[in-house]
Specification:
The protein is an alpha/beta fold. Helices cover about 40% and strands about 20% of the residues. It has two domains: about 5-120, Response regulator (Rossmann fold); about 125-220, Arc Repressor Mutant, subunit A. The protein contains eight helices and twelve strands. The strands form three sheets. The chain has a five-stranded parallel β-sheet with strand order 2-1-3-4-5, with helices on both faces. The protein has a four-stranded antiparallel β-sheet with strand order 6-7-8-9, with helices on one face. Helix 2 (about 35-45) packs parallel to helix 3 and helix 6 (about 155-165) packs across helix 8. The longest helix has 18 residues, at about 105-125. The radius of gyration is 23 Å and the shape is elongated. It binds calcium ion. Calcium ion binds near residues 9, 10, 52 and 54.
């Protein structure tokens, strides 16, 4: 699932494409001019832009150039009727991440979108550490000395919360609210028991979950 901007002035194509992508679970904003692209990308944190080159007000390549000049690094997939190699080369040189010519196969477009989003995810891969405990945010796994830690769903959620907010107190009621989907009956006492089990599993890692009395927990 991704939040995408579709810049395309051909209404029929744009509506059809938005419908397909929404059907695949994505959130789509639709614009039809280059000016709208600048406004929309300043206002929203998109995961990807699908950019037509033949926009009514500005050439899509100029829109792309401006995006990169403004420091926006999000993936841009150019969608265009221009299939001359010079256009492709220029588009890629200006910082497009992919280039697809009209008419195109929607299945191929979706596969390319998936590939771009995957690349972006790996590029943003983050490892959060505490002692020898490592949380890999892409693999969504915890490791101690490179060995995966076996955690229950509740333990996983709690440890992720604490580690994502390392150095700050995480309140018990926040954890209980966060766990609501997993366990509607989680109580303060039950939470203490889960944290106790979690501490045992982290025993040799040097990652210490401290109790902040009356409030919650913290990993320093
Ligand atoms: Ca067009």
């Amino acid at each position: 699932m991704a939040y995408m901007l579709l810049a395309e002035d051909d209404e029929l194509l744009a509506n059809g494409l938005s419908k397909t992508l929404r059907h695949s679970g994505h959130k789509i904003d639709q614009v039809r001019t280059g000016l709208d692209v600048s406004a929309a990308t300043s206002a929203n944190a998109y995961d990807l832009v699908i950019l037509d080159l033949g926009l009514p007000d500005t050439d899509g390549l100029i829109v792309l150039e401006q995006l990169r000049k403004d420091g926006r690094t999000l993936p841009v997939l150019i969608l265009t009727a221009r299939d001359a190699p010079e256009d492709r080369i220029r588009g890629l040189d200006l910082g497009a991440n992919d280039y697809l010519c009209k008419p195109f196969n929607v299945g191929e477009l979706e596969a390319r979108i998936r590939a771009l989003l995957r690349k972006e995810k790996w590029a943003n891969r983050v490892e959060i550490k505490s002692g020898s405990l490592v949380f890999d945010t892409v693999a969504n796994k915890f490791f101690i000395d490179n060995e995966q830690v076996d955690l229950s769903a509740r333990e996983f959620v709690i440890l992720e919360m604490l580690l994502q907010r390392k150095g700050r107190v995480v309140f018990k009621n926040e954890i209980i609210e966060h766990l609501f989907n997993l366990d509607k009956d989680m109580t303060n006492n039950a939470l203490d028991i889960v944290v106790h089990r979690l501490r045992k599993k982290l025993d040799k890692s040097g990652c210490i979950i401290q109790t902040v009395k009356g409030l919650g927990f913290i990993i320093e």
